[in-house]
Design brief:
Glucose Permease (Domain IIA), two-stranded antiparallel sheet, ten-stranded antiparallel beta sheet
Amino acid sequence: MRFHEFTSKSEVDETCCIQTKFSGLHQSTKSLILKAASGMLFAMKKIKGLSTPGLWPVTLIGLLVILVLYLFLENWQLRSEIADLKRQIVSLELREKELETQIDQLQKEREELLQNAVGSLRQRTSYMEKIISQLGLSRYLRQKKKQLSGGLGGPYLPPQKEYEVLLERIEEYLSMVQKVPLGKPCRGYISSYYGYRRDPFTGRRAFHSGIDIVGRYGAPVRATADGRVYRVGYARGLGRYVKIKHAHGFMTVYGHLRKAVVKRGERVKKGDIIGYLGNTGRSTGPHLHYEIRRWGRSLNPLRFIRAERKLARLAHR
């Protein structure tokens, strides 16, 4: 037998087992044949010694018969082994086809899952681009798209490559919005919004460059984005205040603080405590005056608070 034709140890073991079984089945028959042959050879020697040449043909015929029987048994055993091996080959071929079918099915499921993931990432990317554009960062958005390799919208991209490109793009967008002042700097409700209003002291119509957030006196006030403290001081209108410069030309202003806990030039991260809510300056009660400016121009903070809520909903989809 040529066992190297098999591909696994288990198949070789099975074949060896088959050979052992056949050897056991025909061992007794072979032993009898060999004993008969030995007897015939012994008889030939005796006949030769007795000088009786007439018995030689009979003895030779007997040996030939024994040889034919032996070869027949060997041939039958080999045929049985070949038949069993053919059955094993058929069984292995069927198993191979089953495995190929399973592999094809798994491949189809993988492609389907990948397509669904790519579709979801496309929606998230488009949604994030819309939010970033609403924050006035369209120019930076275009720059990021050019910087990212393998941009979409050109030649066809395989799903796996498109998935990687979209993930890279989302990571870049998240890094971008991390530097933009998003969300509320403290807990509380908005009592006065951005825009024209009636001044609480004079009663006249006046422009309000930020929002007022009423909260618990002494509540922590936190930075709404990464940045560097630009100024810490006291003004007649703002009272005790902190101004922080951020990336992309943004600046945030926190007024009427009871106490500031940061110094000028200090770097802060989003969520760091920069002071505590108070009632200093031109104020009618404990609250925080919060402004967002960009390149010196005031913006509506409510738009940035809503943007954070939209991003939070996107993360939970």
